[in-house]
Recover the amino acids of this structure.
């Protein structure tokens, strides 16, 4: 079953670029682009996704470079979030956040 976004909310209007939301598998995600890197985390709760610290409640972490220094366009961020969700769904659980699989087109 394809994982979909149930809820998504942009938490900053300008920078850093931040989003949080809920996925159809009952997990929560947090995305932030800031200081030359972006991070995407999925957790059992929104607090766990935001903190990314609990090895039990955090299910997925992936990160990559952000050339916009936190001023990523909303369209670019939403495209990247969709790619992160697809990567999470495929089971590429990357807790080594320095690894990066490539940026999707349009970002």
């Amino acid at each position: 079953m394809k994982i979909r976004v149930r809820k998504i909310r942009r938490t900053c209007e300008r920078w850093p670029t931040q989003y949080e939301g809920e996925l159809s598998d009952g997990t929560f995600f947090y995305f932030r682009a800031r200081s030359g890197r972006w991070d995407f985390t999925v957790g059992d709760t929104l607090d766990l996704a935001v903190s990314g610290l609990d090895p039990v409640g955090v299910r997925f972490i992936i990160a990559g470079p952000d050339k916009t220094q936190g001023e990523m366009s909303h369209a670019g961020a939403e495209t990247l979030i969709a790619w992160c969700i697809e990567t999470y769904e495929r089971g590429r659980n990357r807790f080594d956040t320095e690894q990066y699989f490539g940026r999707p087109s349009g970002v």
